[in-house]
Amino acid sequence: MRIIETPDDLAEGRAHLAAVCPVWAGALPELELPMRRRDDGFAAILDAIIGQQISIAAAGAIMARLQAAGLSEPAAIRQAGEEGLKACGVSRPKIRYLLGIVADEPDWVALRDAPDADVIAALTALPGIGQWTAEIYLAFALGRTDAFPAGDLALQESARLLYGLDERPSPKALIELAEPWRPWRSVAARALWAHYRLAKGREGVRS
Questions:
Q1: Of 5, 104, 132, 155, which residue is most buried, by most CB within 10 angstroms?
Q2: What is the fold of 7-33+147-200?
Q3: pLDDT number for residue 171
């Protein structure tokens, strides 16, 4: 199982993309690809839940309040309960998700060595965790080389711009477009987000 751990890993993925696609060969020299690795386990899921359906700035502000209140670990969240999370600006649905997750966490350590499909199955069984969040966890928390959240709107828009498409591709169309990028679609996702940042002047995903 390949893991993205160093800049050399990103370089290998870039080389693959450039070799299989002339569009990537032309675009990649202009793109800076960050590692975007983060700690795995509950911390990554907390970050993902808080970031759902709000701006990057708003998510950062709520995370900062949670950390200042000492509410970044499952035990503390269980003890604080609904009122403690609400005081930090967490919405009611997200409070329900977080309290459900800390009540019955998966084995985070075991997920490190589990196949991608098993990780996705374990995470999407949790309240508030869908396919997109599970793919983000695979890519950033576990460093998997082929994780690709095709439902991400920024990735879809970036692919439209990069490939000169008439419209934003659907998740299914984007998966088909990305097929030659295997087994380095996670690097392609980083590159699409980097292209989005250049084209739109804003981040498409939290670092």
A1: 155
A2: Endonuclease Iii, domain 2 (1.10.1670)
A3: 96
